[in-house]
Amino acid sequence: MMKSSMHPIHALIDAKLLSRTKNIQSLTNSLHSRLSSELRQHCWAIDIIGNTLILITDSPERATIIRYQQHELLKQVNEEFTESLEAPVRRMRVKVDYTLSVLTSPTNSSESRTESELSRAKGHCRQMLSYLKDN
């Protein structure tokens, strides 16, 4: 009988990628403390590249609301992450990805999601991991 060699998932992912993911999650949590409860469910930090904070949301309307809060959000990031930033964050880009609404829609329970919705969600997760790994 062969012995199974099961490993925890974190053992299969590069340590640098895990660390970076944790940092981005901390950044997202910090930003969520400044956003309304409705926006928290629809906005995530992607990365800081140079002096630019990159966020993602699922609709142009929410992107506009987030852009209006740019000053407060950048101030929050610069104050909270000053020691880990290479340079102060001075700009913010908000990307819109309509496929994210599949992940956040309250009417979509895991039982009622279609295969194509789940496939798009999985594809988005793969894109995010690829983006993080490349940068």
List the helices and strands and how they pair.
Layout: H1 9-12, H2 15-32, H3 37-40, E1 43-49, E2 52-57, H4 60-68, H5 70-80, E3 91-96, H6 100-104, H7 115-134
Parallel strand pairs: 2-3
Antiparallel strand pairs: 1-2
CATH architecture annotation name of the domain at 15-100 = 2-Layer Sandwich
Overall geometry comes to globular
Instruction: Give a quick account of the main beta sheet: strands, pairing sense, barrel closure.
Output: 3 strands, mixed
Kindly state the mean pLDDT as a whole number?
80
- Beta-strand fraction estimate: 5-15%
**How widely separated are the two ends?**
43 Å
N-to-C SSE series?
A: HHHEEHHEHH
Q: Which parts are unreliable, with pLDDT below 50 for 5 consecutive residues or more?
A: 107-111
Strand order of the largest sheet: 1-2-3
Continuous helix count: 7
Q: What Rg is obtained from the alpha carbons, in whole angstroms?
A: 17 Å
Can you identify the CATH superfamily of the domain at 15-100?
DnaA, N-terminal domain
Secondary structure class reads alpha+beta
Multimerization status = single chain
At the fold tier of CATH, the topology name of the domain at 15-100 is GMP Synthetase, Chain A, domain 3
Number of strands: 3
CATH class of the domain at 15-100, named Alpha Beta
Percent helix among the residues?
40-55%
Question: In brief, what are we looking at here?
Answer:
The chain has helices at residues 9-12, 15-32, 37-40, 60-68, 70-80, 100-104, 115-134, and strands at residues 43-49, 52-57, 91-96.
